[in-house]
Amino acid sequence: MAQPDIDKYCYLMEELKLRMSVIDFLLQGGGHALYQPPTVESVCLQIRKILELIAFSSLTANKDIYSAAYESFASHWHAGRLLRDLAKVNPDFYPKPVVEIPSKLPGVVSELKNREPDYLTKDDFVAVYDQCGGIMHAANPYGQEIDYATYQRQIPTWRSKIMYLLNTHQVQLVNEPGFYLIHMKEDRDDRVHYYRFAPPGSQP
What we know:
5 strands; 5-stranded antiparallel beta sheet; single chain
């Protein structure tokens, strides 16, 4: 039996969480890459990969569309162009962060409310991706020196914004009606869980 598209999405979110664990391990001093520059570079590499997972995950429902979008991106690695291209394929590709509040409606446990803007926006995405890319290559010895201390100060903020974006979010997969509510973890376990909200009469 083919794997449901939302299961593929959750699998990628689990990978994202593992990469976030690597970031936490390095930030909290659990390990390091011998000295500051490669340690910071290692964290920035994980952040770039996390952002790529965020961008591409909603396309898992269509292998051809996913492959074409990734091939185009891999030819230029330009974050702003990537988001524009993905929006043409799936206008709602970007996660929509929400909070669940008690509902006043009879028979309804909770309602979804848009999260306050403390999360990683699309503009933040482009800026962070480009900044992390700025230290992926050897520095020009005749150019401006890379300020690793500034990166180290910024990284915790980037991490928090990514977490706020994803903790509880809505995602709409390409070619599927409705949306899925995603919990990155729940009290019962540390796994990613989803709940489908679809228009009446749509196929499960």
